[in-house]
Amino acid sequence: MQSKKEQKKIGQEKLQRIIEICMAIENHRIEPFLLNIDGVIKVVKKYFPQWEETDELNLDSEAIHHLASVIKLQSEWVKHRSTLLYTDPFLLEDKILKADKDEIINVFLRAWHPLVELEQLSPHSIAEAMRYWNGLLPMKERWKDFEVPEFNMGFTTRDELIKERVLGDKLFSEELEAYWQELKMKAKKNGAEAKMFYWDFIGADNYEETVKRAFLTSFLISYGYATLEIHPLEEEVFIKPFDKPNTKIHSQQLVSIPIAVTYANWQKWKKGELD
């Protein structure tokens, strides 16, 4: 038989294990119902008569205290699950497997509430529609013609372009040739790619000169002196000169590429905001 001292030691170890399990439940590391409350109470009752020292009684009372906390957590767990109408998935699965088909069908029919919508014309809705249409103004009054101002199309001469400072006094071919040489010289400064940002080439100190340079640039591209390199994702446009005019460009299909040379864009370029 075990001595009284050995029994006390075994009882203290069991109480210590009970306290550790209870604390794990309190810290939400273990589910509350994994602890067998009835079995724990039997252990506490079994060893309680043997406690004589203060430390032993303190250990017993600590075990009772943590056990009470676990019972409270179990109660709260039950209340929470009951308010959510919670059903354990394993119990639900077992119940479904044991039920026959007729029972499952009856349960489904009792719980099934299909949505039904009926749409139809009634005499009242037809009368409402008639009153609405009869109250509308005639089509001519609802859709009045907008007055569009007319503009007379005309032609301009080279002298007028010179007067408006779109073109210079030099012959157009000479001016275009000089402009092409300027483009090649500036493009070479950018390295082996020999190209430059479109706005950096046409941009000038004033807006009028910028428009003129954009006008001449369009002829450089149309006559095969240069080409545009467009990066659509980056929204960047570069101009790249040819070493020699590309005479075959006139026999190829051309694609018009509109570039807005607006006053607002020119101001952005001046401020360094136009990339």
What oligomeric state do the depicted chains represent? single chain
Shape: elongated
Across the major sheet, the strand order is 1-3-2
Average of per-residue pLDDT values: 79
* Secondary structure tally, helices: 12
Q: Briefly, what CATH class of one domain?
A: Mainly Alpha
- Give, in order, the helices and strands: HHHHHHHHHEHHEEH
Report, as a whole number of angstroms, the end-to-end distance.
95 Å
Question: At the third CATH level, what is the topology name of one domain?
Answer: Arc Repressor Mutant, subunit A
The CATH architecture of one domain would be Orthogonal Bundle
Low-confidence spans: none
Assess the beta-strand content as a share of residues. 5-15%
SS-derived structural category = mainly alpha
Estimated radius of gyration = 47 Å
The counted number of beta strands is 3
CATH homologous superfamily heading of one domain: Structural maintenance of chromosome 1. Chain E
Helix proportion range? 55-70%
Largest sheet: 3 strands, antiparallel
Plain-language structure description:
The chain is mainly alpha-helical and 275 residues long. Among the domains are: 4-83; 160-270, Structural maintenance of chromosome 1. Chain E (Arc Repressor Mutant, subunit A). Helix content is 56%, strand content 5%. The chain contains 12 helices and 3 strands, in the order H-H-H-H-H-H-H-H-H-E-H-H-E-E-H. It has helices at 4-26, 37-47, 54-83, 89-98, 101-111, 123-134, 139-142, 158-163, 172-188, 198-202, 207-222, 263-270, and strands spanning 196-197, 226-231, 236-241. Strands 1-3-2 form a 3-stranded antiparallel β-sheet. A hairpin with a 4-residue loop joins strand 2 and strand 3. Helix 1 (4-26) packs antiparallel against helix 2 (37-47) and helix 1 runs parallel beside helix 3 (54-83). The longest helix has 30 residues, at 54-83. The chain is elongated, with a radius of gyration of 47 Å. The mean pLDDT is 79.
